[in-house]
Amino acid sequence: MFKWPQFVLGPAVALTLLGAAPTFSAQAPERPRVFLDTTYAAPGRQTSVPAGGDLQSALNSAQPGDAIVLQAGASYTGNFTLPVTSGSGWIYIQSSALSSLPAAGTRVGPGQASLMPKIVSPNTAPAISTAAGAHHFRFVGVEITTTWASTSATNYGLVALEAPGGNTSLAQVPTDIVFDRCYIHGTPTGNIRRGILMNSARTAVVDSYLSDHHEVGADSQAIAGWNGPGPFKIVNNYLEGAGENVLFGGADPGISNLVPSDIEFRKNYLVKPLSWRADGSSYAGIHWSVKNIFELKNAQRILVDGNLFENNWTDAQNGYGILFTPRNQDGTSPWVAVRDVTFTNNIVRHSGAALNMMGTDYIHPSQQTQRILVQNNLFDDIGGAWNGTGVFLQDMDGGTDIVIDHNTVLQTGNMITATYATSLHSATSFVFTNNILSYNLYGVFGDYGVGLGMQAINAYLPGASFARNAIVGGLASNFPADNYYPSALSAVGFIDLAGRNYALAAGTPYVRAGTDGKDVGVDFTAMATAMAASSAPAASPSPAPAPAPAPAPALSPAPAPGNAAAQNVTWTNLVNVTANGNSVTKTGGCDGCYDAGAISQQTITAGDGYAQFSPSVTGPLRATGLTQSFASSNPGTIAFGIRFQGATAEVREGGAYRTDTSFVAGDVFRVAVQSGVVRYSKNGTVFYTSQAAPAYPLVLAAALANRNGVVAGAVIGGSAAGPSASPSPTPGSGSGSGSAPASITWSNPVNVTAAGNSLTKTAGCDGCNDAGAASQQQISGANGYAQFTAGATGPLRVAGLTSGFSVTNPATIAFGIRLQGNIAEVREGGVYRRDVTFAAGDVFRISVQAGVVTYSKNGTVFYTSSQASSSAMAFGVVIANVSGAIGSAVLAGGL
Question: First vs last Cα of the chain: how many Å apart?
Fold first, then answer.
């Protein structure tokens, strides 16, 4: 039975609920100083350019605030230049079918190409380039490509954002350029060096799809930049590049002392297609030069968070996936640096080796690599079949303030290979803590005869913090004290090692065994949150510990089938598919495009239920699962889905990756709802439990990309009821279980004065989060609510439901409302969701109904959460400004 923790507010709460604070001896990286806002705002005057019209003339004539509307499906062939305009308003270049494209925040792909106009370079010159100082252009829903399909010469970039001949001063740098829901691609057989040359400032690429960037005998990238200052925003994109999918640096800047800065890089999927692998079974016949997935040669203040990096092998380089390696490429830029890098919550998999760091350039002078945080990342399938060394971390020539913390690593080579170019340079303030990885052949290897284990650590990493790592197959004599040595990966206690679910099962030795009281290895809940987050986290001065996760569930059987007999699915709304009984197969449309699918006629209308199906064969790409609404062209509309490709089945929720497992033809998968919790099972064994709550009614949906892709043997069990009308949810502010609301009694108030069920900050720092309290009562079931009045506009305070609370950290409020000025923002775990205005006396309610959380003001719901509620929550308040107040707080539900 859940036991509610006693509220002990103030400094002790971090120890009680979060574990001891990390004791890193390294300086933390600085986060980006600027996060670009790319919210789409409707333009003013619109000018349509029909098929065959003069696009360049329209660009030259456009004024700030104008929209140039291009005809969806039409081609505009030429080499177009963005001119310099007066004023600071945006000029939009957008599709006439923009309203039919996925909404902002949803990644587009080739399946939406028919809804886009096509800007086409007919030669090796860019389709889009810029005049010196061009600014404020936003492309929305546009395809950009070339007809170049040969390796006899090279198209050097589909989009070139720089002054003609290259920037030589900041005044020449193009600025404020956005690519929003665009499809930017080369041709399958052409030398296309890069998709976007980002030698610019205030530039963003969001929700877009960049593919087929490759070259024989030279580096190629989806995105690269070396001569633009930033800031940059690259969020929620698909990115293909043979040399490096994404690269900053790599050529000497033409502007003195320029370092690309303030880079937000989140929620992207970076992949190299296996058809590019010359020694692979899927090889398409052209040997593109393959090097790395993500590389920094000159960059600072970069946040790399919640991305998936996939497929990298030894070819033109030695197979490392991620590189932080400063390079004064031609010897004219000694200021180049790689510093202040935050690499968190990412998955790197199927790569010849993992991380390569270099302290300084060994060819020409550079600055020292410093302040690198690699934390809470999964490195899976490193080495092995990918023809690399299988090394997790190579450190060459030192560096300083490098923290490697809470990573889970499945690698075939050394944990660390330390080496140098000309003479030994030690890494200082090096931290290696709370990681799970294997010793393999040499563990920590010191190159050039230094030796292994402690000899290598003392020489290359002197004074390192090296603690609470689970080193599989290691010996205590080779390492500092306070590490763990499981005998095999099977002894670590993963939920499903064979199924690649690397969360720790409850009761296993390394649960809450880290230096910070958290599980050793990855916090997969935090990773999933980062991969789904709609906005960037606020800047953080140090790597702060997150609330300790609930123990991972032990391996368990699939949930019971619900309260009604299973029914064979009857498929309806068929698009480019053929139904054969309860199976559906793609028989039309594009081979490789999401343009085919169907939904079940049956629905799960409420309560418990499940859908069960078989992928039938390995290979084709398709996605299927339970959802409330569905578009066959967008698998991201499947709320609780499984994506099949090759022999891998990935859990995808709203398009966001959660976990994966292998499968073979004939395996049976189930997506089940039980007591408001969604679980995924294969052949009767649960391999993932969702953190998101379902919204009813639910249908089974299938989106198929490859011809002959099949979803077979589909059945639905539970509260299934006849044909689906796919109604929209009816959110309500509901009183929950029906228990009478109780005035809140405050527990352990800090720097506040309680007057009945109201709370006012009366002491502490004015503007600091150092005041608040929590309710003695709690909501213990699936229904209930908290209600309060806002008090006066102005002061900053946050109030809401939480299962773990710190008075100094409003981000510990899981479902909160942040009040400041006259704006009320929904903040979930500190992450912004939505806002409304408010006035003094407005009444807010945060309701839980069947596990679904809604937010209302004066009785009207204004936001419904996609996050699952906890089983027991109190009402917490954090107040920053003196005189800030929360009034008339009540709680109803399972008290």
Answer: 15
pLDDT category of residue 565 using cuts at 50, 70 and 90: low
Residue 580 DSSP SS3: strand
Tokens of 541: 């001065």
- 171 phi and psi angles, rounded to 5 deg: -65, -25
- Spacing of C-alpha 643 from chain mean position: 17
Nearest-angstrom CA–CA distance, 533 and 266: 9
- Residue 531 in contact with residue 306, Cβ under 8 Å? yes
Please say whether the beta carbons of 819 and 798 come within 8 A. Answer: yes
Residues ≥6 apart with Cβ < 8 Å to 37: none
Could you tell me which residues come within 8 angstroms of residue 54 by beta carbon, excluding any fewer than 6 positions away? Answer: none
**Contact present, 739 and 848 (Cβ < 8 Å):** no
Cα separation, 159 vs 129, whole angstroms: 6
DSSP 424-462: ---EEEEEEES-EEE-TTTSEEETTTTEETHHHHHHHST
| Type of residue at 180 | D
What gap in Å lies between CA 508 and CA 505, rounded to an integer? 6
CA angle 826, 655, 578 (to 5 degrees): 135
**Chain centroid offset of residue 848 CA:** 27
Q: Calculate the CA dihedral of residues 230, 236, 238, 242 and round it to 10 degrees.
A: 40
Q: Which residue has the higher pLDDT, 859 or 72?
A: 72
Supply the DSSP string of 402-430, one letter for each residue: EEEES-EEEESS-SEEEE-SSS---EEEE
Helix (H) / strand (E) containing 45? none
Query: Are 230 and 223 a contacting pair, CB within 8 Å?
Result: no
Give the DSSP H/E element, type plus range, for residue 350.
Answer: strand 347-351
Contact 642, 652 (CB under 8 A): yes
For the segment 181-210, what is each residue's pLDDT rounded down to a tens digit?
999 999 999 999 999 999 999 999 999 999
- What is the DSSP secondary-structure string of 460-523? HSTT-EEES-EEET--GGGS-SS-B--SSGGGT-EEETTTTEEEEBTT-TTTT-STTSSPSS--
- Sole residue written with tokens 């249908």: 699
* 811/546 Cα distance (integer angstroms): 9
In order of 199, 254, 332, 749, 778, the CA distances from 336 in angstroms are: 15, 12, 10, 51, 54
Amino acid sitting at position 418: A
Which among 748, 776, 758, 746 is positioned nearest to 874, based on CA atoms? Answer: 776
865 CB-near residues (< 8 Å, 6+ apart): 693, 815, 826, 828, 833, 852, 853, 854, 855
What span, in angstroms and rounded, lies between the C-alpha atoms of 25 and 14? 19
CB atoms under 10 Å from CB of 722, counted, come to 11
DSSP character for 601?
Answer: S
Length of the chain: 895
Within a 10 A sphere around the Cβ of 796, how many other Cβ atoms?
18
Per-residue pLDDT of 666-710, as tens digits, reads: 889 999 998 888 999 998 888 998 988 898 889 999 999 888 899
DSSP E strand boundaries for 164-305: 175-180, 183-185, 191-192, 194-198, 201-206, 209-211, 221-225, 232-235, 238-239, 244-248, 261-266, 269-271, 292-296, 299-305
Question: Which of 775, 776, 786, 777 minimizes the C-alpha distance to 849?
Answer: 786
- Give the tokens for residue 143: 């395809």
Q: What global pTM score does this model have?
A: 0.64
Containing 14, the helix (H) or strand (E) segment is helix 12-17
SS (H, E, C) 732-757: CCCCCCCCCCEECCEEEEECEEEECC
Cβ atoms within 10 Å, residue 816? 28
Distances 390 to 320, 360, 598 between C-alpha atoms, Å: 9, 23, 42
